[in-house]
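Tokens as discussed.
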């Protein structure tokens, strides 16, 4: 029997966060806020990370984690992040690589604050932070990637809906088909959507990250790099959530590995999303997103259901845009947020395929750029929007949908 884990907060909009969902997290994808990972440079140079991003195999988006809540890359907070814990008029130089945070005044101050906020022993918290090491690569990877070209859905798609992920997805599907079906029955989230997320995030557990989460979150809490909006407050909260999580799950904080943004496990949840949405779906009495694909399956389904997934509603469908520029602009203005009824879209000149009875609720008119070629347009339902709560990107959401469909089709052949 699965059971949700209580949490004091969800991961805020994930840039995760693969980071990711849970942030979480995490930075990747073509986002409508900040990217969870670096994609355009990644798409061209084939670098990547998944939302915190687990590894450099995952491409992401151009401009600058969870849901935005979960997962893999760290999301952009729903509210503006406050200044770092110890603002100063003089910019402090970055620490030496791998230097410890022990005995720093701001380490002690943050440790005391987190201990009070999360009801932890302050001596233990300060000792844990003192064992954390500054990671220069974490500070570098969290920065927005350079935009080396126009957004390109076809290129983005090719990084995820491709033979390696499909082959791994087929093996995953055939091994865990009964668990995928059980999750679909319990939460109403289709098996192929769950499979799509786990494939995009970590290639079915292959790339879950090799940073000590303690190092990553402490680096981003106390030495968030200059040159982009300060998100140290977000990471300080995730650090507190992480320390609380390790106590609840009886884990050694110095031994837990994840992405450069602190996202964890197969689904790349940020720690706050682990505490709020992760479930013990394999019934062994503990939650383990690192080693239990079954827990990951249930946790992804629970996350999407908590973010508004509606059973039986397709996440997206093709659409022909209106010919009038003014009508098209009106449809695109709300971006990925479901805003229009089916009749309102039709009255503005959008042409939808038949039948459309399943497109209940509010709808979004979504545009995906294809470089110099004609853009792709889709209708996004409230379920499409639910996927973007994992990672705030229409490109990410459509990649998840299409990878999942490809895996399901191949697994049934």
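Sequence:
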């Amino acid at each position: 029997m699965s059971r949700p884990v209580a949490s004091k907060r969800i991961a805020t909009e994930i840039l995760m966060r693969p980071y990711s969902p849970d942030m979480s997290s995490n930075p990747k994808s073509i986002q409508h806020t900040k990217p969870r990972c670096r994609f355009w440079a990644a798409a061209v140079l084939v670098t990547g990370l998944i939302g915190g991003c687990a590894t450099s195999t995952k491409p992401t988006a151009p401009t600058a984690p969870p849901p935005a809540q979960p997962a893999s890359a760290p999301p952009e907070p729903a509210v503006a992040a406050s200044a770092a814990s110890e603002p100063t008029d003089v910019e402090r130089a970055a620490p030496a690589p791998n230097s410890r945070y022990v005995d720093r005044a701001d380490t002690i101050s943050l440790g005391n604050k987190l201990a009070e906020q999360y009801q932890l022993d302050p001596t233990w918290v300060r000792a844990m932070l003192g064992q954390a090491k500054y990671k220069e690569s974490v500070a570098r990877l969290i920065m927005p990637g350079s935009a080396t070209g126009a957004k390109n859905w076809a290129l983005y798609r090719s990084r995820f809906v491709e033979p390696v992920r499909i082959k791994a997805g087929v093996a995953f599907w055939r091994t865990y088909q009964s668990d995928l079906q059980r999750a679909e029955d319990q939460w109403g989230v289709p098996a192929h959507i769950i499979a799509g997320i786990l494939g995009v995030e970590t290639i079915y557990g292959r790339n879950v990250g090799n940073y000590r989460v303690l190092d990553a979150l402490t680096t981003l809490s106390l030495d968030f790099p200059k040159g982009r909006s300060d998100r140290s407050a977000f990471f300080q909260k995730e650090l507190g959530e992480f320390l609380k999580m390790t106590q609840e799950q009886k884990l050694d904080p110095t031994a837990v590995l994840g992405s450069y943004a602190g996202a964890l496990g197969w689904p790349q949840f940020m720690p706050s999303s682990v505490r709020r949405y992760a479930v013990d779906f394999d019934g062994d009495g503990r939650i383990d997103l690192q080693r239990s694909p079954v827990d990951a399956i249930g946790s992804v389904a629970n996350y999407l259901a908590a973010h508004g997934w509606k059973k039986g509603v397709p996440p997206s469908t093709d659409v022909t845009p209106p010919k009038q520029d003014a009508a098209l602009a009106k449809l695109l203005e709300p971006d990925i947020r479901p805003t229009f009824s089916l009749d309102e879209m039709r009255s503005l000149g959008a042409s939808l395929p038949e039948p459309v009875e399943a497109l209940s609720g509010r709808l979004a008119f979504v545009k995906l750029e294809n470089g110099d070629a004609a853009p792709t347009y889709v209708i996004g339902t409230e379920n499409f929007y639910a996927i973007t709560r994992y990672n705030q990107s229409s490109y990410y959401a459509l990649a998840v949908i299409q990878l999942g469909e490809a895996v399901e089709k191949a697994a049934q052949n």
